[in-house]
Amino acid sequence: MCTLEKRGSLFVITLTSEDDEQHRLNPTLLSSLLNALSQLNSQVTAGTALVTVAHGKFFSNGFDFRWAQAASDQDGARHRLRHMSDSLRPVVAALLSLPIPTIAAVSGHAAAAGAILAMAHDYVLMRGDRGVIYMPEVDLGITLPDYFSAVARAKISSATAARDVLLRGVKIRAKEGMEIGIVHSAHDGAESTVEAAMRLGAELASRKRIGDAYAEIRKSLYPEVCAVLGLTTKSIVSKI
Amino acid sequence: MCSLEKRGNVWLLTLTGESQHRFNPDLIQSLLSNLSHLASQATASSVLITTANGGYFSTGFDLGWAGAAGTHSAFDRLSFMVDSLKPVAAALMSLPMPTIAAVNGHATAAGFLVAICHDYILMRSDHGVLYMPEVNLGLPMPDYFAAVMRSKIRSPTALRDVMLGGVKVKAAEAVKMGIVDSAHDSAEKTVEAAMRLGEEFAQKKWVGEVYAEIRKSLYPDACKVLGLTQKSIVSKI
Q1: What is the interface pTM, i.e. ipTM, of the complex?
Q2: pLDDT tens-digit series, residues B123-150
Q3: Are the Cβ atoms of B236 and A140 closer than 8 angstroms?
Q4: Which of B207, B231, B222 shows the shortest CA–CA distance to A145?
Q5: Tally: H helices and E strands in chain A
Q6: Is the pLDDT of residue B82 over 90?
Q7: Residue of A nearest to B97 (CA)
Q8: Which residues constitute the signal peptide according to the record (chain A) (predicted)?
Q9: How far apart are the first and last CA of chain B?
């Protein structure tokens, strides 16, 4: 499950660990995330930012394969996999169209759909002493939903790095994440990562940027992702 | 012509002979039939390495063959070769196994394109350049050439230098530009390094069909131009 709270100028979404310390994205967690983002969207004002954090050693270990495999047969498992993939899509779309800066504090492993969730934020801060971001689908023998590849292509700075992440399943530590453009900064531990995320969030919030313009500029940065997610751009928004 | 042999898990496709391995209709046909054969023989530990004998990987389309027909027919012959190579590029981009080009010498024009259609490029550093001469020759760039280059080279300056600047890129420079994965002292060492990388991939036992789908999802623009479509979810769970 996840919680949404307001701390000063920041909205904080926390992936909590009471049900699953790996924060696997099953229908319950996915609908909880989507709810939190819609709620946030209805309360948002200029001068705020979102920080997403997770308790424990995992940011998120991706879709809940246990739930998929608990289906009665292989068709059922695929159907459940498809269901989770379809349910994460609006979460990623909501993050990409949120009218405030978004920061993920990755304090542990972010794998597969968990890595996509992290990368869907504007800034990823990551602990440097442990934890990896990686896409294990090639090793698991599962293809990627279209928006996964689109997000990875949009956020990873070079074609060879994107190939290494998607087609070779390499595990990316914080420092390597900075080299390939997906991690903004690396920190000593989980706590320092979250603190740095809060500081960055507060700093970005203090700029009081116009939300509509912020969201439109973000979408214009990632046109292929937006096309895949069905996000359209609005015509010119201006305060002058 | 080219030969295909299996060494352990690795399939080695070699452009044979000491020539420049220019792509004329015969060589293109030979490449295509070898790749089709390979796709049908693929198993979970298969890997393709493509290399060539001598000091050239390939210098691209056989302009000599095109010109031998007289000016009037030269354009038709060139168009024919451009059309014939397209399924070769498509076969490489959809091959259900990892692919490595061991570039043993000059890879220019269509020769460069064939190299960059592989997942990884290893290149010798003591000899040979990667080079797209079309801008210098006044030749148009076929749509799928440009689409593949754009998909594989994402740095705008590197792409401009290759396509619009017609720069000749040696292995060390190509590594810096993100085009080549590693540079090696000689042709032999390049092939050896490719074999090691190939054996490493073979151990992963990747599911070929899934591997090909993930590759296609990495290069959607190139795949669109090459007429390759994406399949919906494929999963072994």
Answers
A1: 0.94
A2: 999 999 999 999 999 998 999 999 999 9
A3: yes
A4: B231
A5: 11, 9
A6: yes
A7: A167
A8: none
A9: 42
pLDDT band at B74 (very low <50, low <70, confident <90, very high): very high
- Tens-digit pLDDT profile for residues A105-162: 999 999 999 999 999 999 999 999 999 999 999 999 999 999 999 999 999 999 999 9
Q: Nearest-CA residue of chain A relative to B211? A: A138
Instruction: Spell out a b/e string for A7-34, using b for 16 or more CB atoms within 10 Å of the CB, else e.
Output: eebbbbbbbbeeebbbbbbbeebbebbb
Name every residue whose Cβ is closer than 8 Å to that of residue B138 and which is 6 or more positions away in sequence: none
Tell me which of A67, A80, A142 to substitute to probe the interface with B (most B C-beta atoms closer than 10 Å).
A142
DSSP string, chain B: -EEEEEETTEEEEEE-SSS---B-HHHHHHHHHHHHHHHHH--TT-EEEEEESTTEEE--B-HHHHHTT-HHHHHHHHHHHHHHHHHHHHHHHH-SS-EEEEE-SEEETHHHHHHHTSSEEEEESSS--EE-THHHHTPPPPHHHHHHHHHH---HHHHHHHHTS---B-HHHHHHTTS-SEEESSHHHHHHHHHHHHHHHHHH---HHHHHHHHHHH-HHHHHHTT----S--B--
Contacts B207 to A, Cβ<8 Å: 141
**pLDDT tens per residue across span A187-222:** 999 999 999 999 999 999 999 999 999 999 999 999
- B2-225 is a CATH 1.10.275.10 domain: no
Domains of chain B by residue range: 2-225
Contact A138 B214 (CB under 8 A): yes
CATH topology of domain A2-229: 2-enoyl-CoA Hydratase; Chain A, domain 1 (3.90.226)
Q: Which residue has the tokens 């692919």?
A: B99
Of the residues A143, A163, A171, the best mutation for testing chain B's interface (the one with the most B CB atoms within 10 Å of its CB) is A143
Task: Identify whether the C-beta of residue A103 lies closer than 8 Å to the C-beta of residue A121.
Answer: yes
Q: Which of A222, A24, A14 is nearest to A110 (CA)?
A: A24
Whole-angstrom Cα distance, residue B128 to residue B130?
Answer: 7
CB B96 within 8 A of CB B209: yes
Identity of the residue in B178, B217, B232 whose CB atom sits nearest the CB atom of A159 = B178
Look up tokens 């000063």; give the residue: A8
- CA distances A206 to A46, A194, B76, Å, are 9, 18, 64
Contact B236 A144 (CB under 8 A): no
Q: Where do the structural domains in chain A lie, given as residue ranges?
A: 2-229
A87 to chain B, closest Cα gap in Å = 15
